[in-house]
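Is this the right way to post structure tokens for a design question? Let me know if I should format differently. Anyway, here goes:
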């Protein structure tokens, strides 16, 4: 049976502007445009790039039981401390975490948006809307919760890069807003227009200080039919700031350099333990247990001291990479196989000065250093490793030496304040 290919509301625009299209999660998506993935990657580091992300799935969870359901199913603690003896509201805030199964494996990672105390949005990866909505309905049981999968009913785009704020300002998105309130992982407005907030061309949007690149930027949600007009408005407003439309290739290399996982590649149906993304779990101070119950908790706790596989970031010494479709293996310097490669891409914005990784965005980069890009990614090892350890990746056609790292691309801007990023 042939798979039915889906199209986003911007499909015609992508074709008209020379996008190289490819299949991703059942959608025909732009991989890159005429200038290529390298140019798009660098645009997000140095200016701004705009991504069509309307293939992502959005689920609304509403009702008196909505908070309790998400608190039980989601890994992160959604109770933002206590204020006057009551749980502080997460209204206007976003939280990244994972939904686990009973075995401690990842169903999907997600961002939960607090629209109101009994009204939440859950943004998950393309193709996973129905799966996660079903998971939530099963665990909701007879409790008063309304769960709706909005897959293919909404438009979504990501504007990422240091000039993203100035572009949105020129597009009129901040009219009547105090932009200083737009902190990292907060949002304003709603695509339904049922709350006050930002709009573009008079069209209400949900504007979120989030993204998947590690750089300063926003995710913009709107009604599906409004997407082409809003996309063009942002492209037009960003022309003087050298904005570029960007495809999924640059999205993949940017998120890897920012040490962000790809669901069902770097995280998946195996124990969500021993990885760089511990912030997605509600560890107690000693990291020996968790501060709240959630689905998968028991499986994680029972394996916490015995689970041996560890996921590490790595960086190479030049552009060369291995092909993950060939299931590359990881070897020690004495030839012992210890694991496998999960992701391997090239971050075009980084290079090396001795054993220090430097970014093209750094203001004090030595002039004699030519930054041409480095391979980087994630590997899963059966033995403990530490930063600066050397291993060899082998996909059967190519071998490359790489270095285990605690972090990858330096000087990322995602957490910078609006004040800092809006200064001319």
């Amino acid at each position: 049976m042939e798979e039915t290919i889906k199209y986003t509301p911007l499909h015609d625009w992508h074709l008209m502007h020379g996008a190289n299209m490819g299949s991703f999660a059942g959608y025909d998506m732009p991989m890159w445009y005429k200038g290529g993935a390298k140019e798009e990657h660098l645009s997000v580091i140095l200016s701004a790039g705009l991504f069509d992300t309307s293939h992502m799935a959005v689920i609304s969870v509403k009702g008196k039981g909505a908070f309790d359901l998400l608190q039980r199913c989601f890994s992160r603690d959604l109770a933002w401390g206590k204020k006057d003896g009551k749980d502080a509201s997460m209204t206007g805030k976003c939280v990244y975490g994972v939904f686990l199964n009973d075995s401690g494996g990842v169903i999907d990672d997600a961002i939960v948006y607090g629209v109101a105390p009994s009204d939440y949005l859950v943004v998950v990866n393309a193709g996973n809307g129905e799966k996660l909505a079903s998971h939530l309905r099963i665990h909701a049981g007879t409790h008063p919760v309304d769960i709706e999968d909005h897959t293919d009913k909404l438009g979504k785009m990501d504007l990422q890069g240091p000039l993203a704020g100035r572009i949105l300002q020129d597009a009129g998105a901040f009219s009547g807003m105090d932009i200083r309130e737009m902190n990292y992982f907060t949002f304003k407005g709603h695509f339904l227009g049922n709350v006050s907030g930002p709009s573009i061309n008079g069209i209400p949007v949900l504007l979120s200080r989030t993204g998947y690149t590690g750089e300063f930027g926003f995710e913009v949600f709107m009604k599906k039919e409004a997407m082409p007009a809003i996309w063009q408005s942002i492209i037009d407003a960003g022309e003087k700031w050298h904005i570029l439309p960007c495809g999924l290739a640059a999205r993949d290399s940017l998120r890897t350099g920012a040490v962000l996982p790809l669901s069902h590649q770097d995280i998946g149906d195996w124990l969500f333990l021993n990885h760089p993304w511990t912030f997605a779990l509600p560890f107690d101070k000693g990291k020996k247990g968790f501060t709240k119950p959630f689905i998968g908790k028991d499986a994680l706790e029972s394996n916490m001291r015995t689970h041996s596989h560890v996921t590490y970031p790595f960086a190479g010494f030049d552009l060369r990479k291995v092909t993950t479709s060939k299931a590359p293996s990881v070897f020690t310097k004495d030839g012992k196989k210890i694991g496998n490669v999960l992701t391997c891409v090239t971050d075009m914005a980084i290079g090396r000065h001795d054993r220090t990784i430097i970014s093209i965005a750094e203001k004090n980069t030595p002039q004699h250093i030519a930054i041409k890009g480095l391979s980087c990614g994630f590997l899963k090892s059966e033995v403990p490793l530490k930063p600066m350890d050397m291993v060899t990746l082998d996909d059967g056609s190519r071998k490359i030496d790489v270095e285990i790292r605690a972090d990858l691309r330096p000087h990322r801007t995602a957490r910078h304040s609006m004040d800092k990023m809006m200064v001319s």
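Format looks fine. Someone answered above. Worth noting: The CA atoms of residues 322 and 397 lie 8 Å apart. Residues 11-55+153-256 form a domain with the Gyrase A; domain 2 fold (CATH 3.30.1360.120).
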